[in-house]
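Exercise 7. Given the components listed, write out the predicted structure of the assembled complex. Treat all entries as one system.
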Amino acid sequence: MDLLIKFIGEKIGLGNSDEDIVGPTDMDDSAVIKMSSDRIVITTDGHTVDPVFFPGGNIGDLAIAGTVNDLMVMGCQPLYLTLSMIIEEGFPFERLGEICSTIGDLARKSGVRIVAGDTKVMPKGSLNNIVLTTAGVGVIRREVPLQDSKGVSGDVVIVSGTIGDHGAALMARREGIDLETNLPSDVRPLWPDFKDVVLHPGVRSMKDVTRGGLASALSELSTKSGLVIEVIEDRIPVDPRSKAICDILGLEPLEISSEGKVVMLCSKASAEEVLGLLKSTDAGKNAKIIGELIEGPPEVHVKTNVGGTRLLDKPYGEPIPRVC
Amino acid sequence: MDLLIKFIGEKIGLGNSDEDIVGPTDMDDSAVIKMSSDRIVITTDGHTVDPVFFPGGNIGDLAIAGTVNDLMVMGCQPLYLTLSMIIEEGFPFERLGEICSTIGDLARKSGVRIVAGDTKVMPKGSLNNIVLTTAGVGVIRREVPLQDSKGVSGDVVIVSGTIGDHGAALMARREGIDLETNLPSDVRPLWPDFKDVVLHPGVRSMKDVTRGGLASALSELSTKSGLVIEVIEDRIPVDPRSKAICDILGLEPLEISSEGKVVMLCSKASAEEVLGLLKSTDAGKNAKIIGELIEGPPEVHVKTNVGGTRLLDKPYGEPIPRVC
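Answer.
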């Protein structure tokens, strides 16, 4: 077991040099950390994606991006992660190494440190490959945390790019149509790229567009703000490859998960500035204003291409299991 | 999925009343928490125990006790936990409810709050029952954190009770000999029972006696302190039922995990006082001084009943998988 932990540590590239680690090092059970803020955010996510490697990423991308983005949408700078790996006996070391390298690379890119970890092995046949759980700790960097309930009438709805690419890429791989489309998952940690957006005082609410897709995110924003969200279908950015995959499989792009996109509510006065900030980043280059918050009982209205309006229900969940 | 989360939340008994939760409630993705200390400890543990229900507890006991005890042995007051549940499709709701009730009860007893959670379901056959990952956050309550490396020559080695009971109980259940012995696992969170011990200035190092048992814990304390640990075999408390199970299965009680015991290094001058503090608690009523730290290259010496001395090696790991 010690050898396995050593292998994982080397692949992730953990160091002991960071001066934030003021007490015992990673050779003890836990990490002691200096925290100067009194507004700390804590979050956790389990990752069970199948297949473990998919077009554009692997389960390690999801483990870092999911938790970094979860913290970020609170108005928070992600700082520390914990990582629990549960591995099926016989899972190839080479693949485990790739996952760990991904984790290390993305953690460094996002400016987060993995300060505690745990590894368990389950006998062959009792777990399908590998599952990861990350927990994250960060510090609020805004006067007021971003909150789903903060939208007011007149606010603008912005998405940071094409939606549904993660779910579509994963389903294409499972159904064997990925060779035709070559669509990669959009999984990526959005901090620090979106830092200026997160800190912008005109931004009120932000949600990562994960399980249940844009439909689920909009539905929650509408419910918690107690207002109607009206979006223009034509303006919602969807990659043509995702659209094609969804058409083939009979799925709705608005209900499919992204893992590198956010939707946000923003004051009308700040909308163009925030859009500009998003578009100046690689992760947000396809950002679009897609609608607005209006008076009325909480519902999501989609103005369709043919001039009608349809209600967008909150989906029951992702159409398939193990998408993240 | 929402129904499942609601069910889990009800069984655990999460509330929204705690004033430490200063920002978004558990209806948002993450929790915002006030932290007044700048010495925060973060830890994580995955739990894959098989069977999920065993004599004296279930996987929920392990999830709380493991993380609470991990924090405590750093000299830390456990405060906040995150909980990730990965559940096999078809796992009985009733059993899930029992696990969640256990988690809620133990969290309340330990004075910790579960501030963030995540639930994933894996298709039937891709996971054996359920795995849990907890991460924990706490605050150092001592001037200097407890550390494995802090022992000095002359220090006394104390264990807080009989060792090996968790591993023995689990193996007895698996091998079908538990009806004869009726030995329960010793799994329990040790905070706040051991609070006064943890805060005692004479205590230098503390380790929970989990995977690899007392042998592993002593070996690490010896290695990190750079000294010999000499223990008297006769003084090490072992429940006769654990001894019997180990005899039947050809196992060594010193290498079997406990989940509610700690071993500690303590200054000679404080030893009797610390022992008294331990013995005044239910969890520590069988505490014993078992040896001392002496000059010499790091090794663990066991003085046997027949007058000899044997070397105690660090075991490769727990003799069987999925013990915690």
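Discussion: The two ends of chain B are 27 Å apart (CA to CA). The first strand of chain B starts at residue 31 and ends at 33.
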